[in-house]
Specification:
Layout (H helix, E strand, L loop, with lengths): L4 E7 L6 H9 L7 E6 L6 H8 L6 E5 L15 H12 L7 E5 L3 E2 L4 H11 L3 E12 L2 E4 L11 E5 H6 L9 H11 L3 E12 L9 H14 L4 H11 L7 H16 L7 H22 L6
Parallel strand pairs: 1-2, 1-4, 2-3, 6-9
Antiparallel strand pairs: 4-8, 5-9, 6-7, 6-8
Helix pairs in contact: 7-9, 8-9
Length: 297
Amino acid sequence: MQARILIISPVRNEAAHVERVARSVAAQTLPPVEWVIVDDSSTDDTPAILHALEPQIPFLRVHGRAADPGPVADRLALAAAPRAFNAGLAAASVDDWTHVVKLDGDIELPPDYFERLVERFAEDHSLGMAGGNLVEPRNGRMVMIPIPEHHVHGAVKCYTRACFDAIGGVQTRLGWDTIDETYARMRGYRTRNFKDIVAVHHRPHGSADGTLRGRARHGECAYIAHFGVVWVALRSLKIARSRPIGLSGVAFFYGYVRSAVRRVERVPDAEFRRYARWELRRRMRRAVLGALPVRAG
């Protein structure tokens, strides 16, 4: 069956990047059947750029989302991206898609990105969610963003139709891009990023809202997804090695503890909680065993 790709792109204030992103999608060797860009209340020239591009790219449709929470300090904390994604999905005119992609407005793709990704899905029918890796500019050079193999960047997530339906779509809550992967594995699908398929992230990670605020948000995501405090403490120590040194780990752990104190709503699914904690215990055991010295003969 021929792959039919639907792309949904929630964008906000991406005037500096969105045209080159659009040109990279238009140049794909396996183009999408439809690309819905949801302008999420941009205050720069993003809407004007998109509407100028619309007649030039046959499969592009620009959709302005009506529901707007208004000016807030941290829109990501309100799960603005998944809300806009779901609005774009509802507005799509194509309903016989085989793969749906969430693509951010600052991601420039190589021309064969979708062709190679669809090949990976065809080679492994258990693969339900995948994406390429990302490089971003840092100190004058392009650096790959470190990521575990089982995780897929939220900026370039591709779902098969069967997997997307099995997980019930994308939840409109903070931590959605960890929750969806956990549900996918619960339902028997594999999730993976491919380091040999590389796209460019033009806006450095965490720059939109500040690095420390982003770390605290990730700590809150860990709480929402039922990650245990031991794992969070160990993860904080690892994150503390990132800039700003020390404070990054403190901010991550603070976000987790603050969420617990405030009793932020977690995923209300006992099966999900059990599975998420089982996965973490398994990964921790593997990490410990991997760190043990190998005894000779």
